[in-house]
């Protein structure tokens, strides 16, 4: 299986990249425990910023950007992580996903996550990231992960789960959807799209009530 993580962090080192790596490791560990071989690729959008801007103007992707787009559209599962800018996803993050064919993520398991300086921006997951990938008809996992500065190294308390627990739960949910999803790239003629969507909805429902 191929798992792709997209990180829109701009600094080096980046908490956004760190969160993407930890989520990818969580999902990979769960998939390997289920007997799957997993390849993980991480796409750093900061390295593609100029190519993204040029593509928006010219309509033609440079080879590194075309490779990144192919990786996202061809993945069995996707992790998308952005820093919060002005209470939403970053412009670079949005510009990259504007270049993805609107049908390419249909039914694809996607885990969304974000990083920010304060917990008060955590609702970006619900008012910005979920609507974006719902529009693209992706199969979003129930748990989205937000990491504020104070979350790193925190174990949580009696009322809230710490960041490591949220990462484990989200990675497990993504792995479950990836493992259960038909391989529509190789079996597209054998799978009815309506049946595929219904099956994914049942799987998401099961995950919510475990």
UniProtKB/TrEMBL annotation:
Pfam families: FMN_red. One of its GO terms (molecular function) is oxidoreductase activity. Transmembrane segments: none annotated. Residues 1-152 form the NADPH-dependent FMN reductase-like domain. It comes from the Bacteria. InterPro entries: CE1759_FMN_reduct, Flavoprotein-like_sf, FMN_Rdtase-like_dom, NAD(P)H-dep_FMN_reductase. Keywords: Flavoprotein, FMN, Oxidoreductase. PANTHER family: FMN REDUCTASE (NADPH). This is FMN reductase. It comes from Streptomyces sparsogenes DSM 40356.
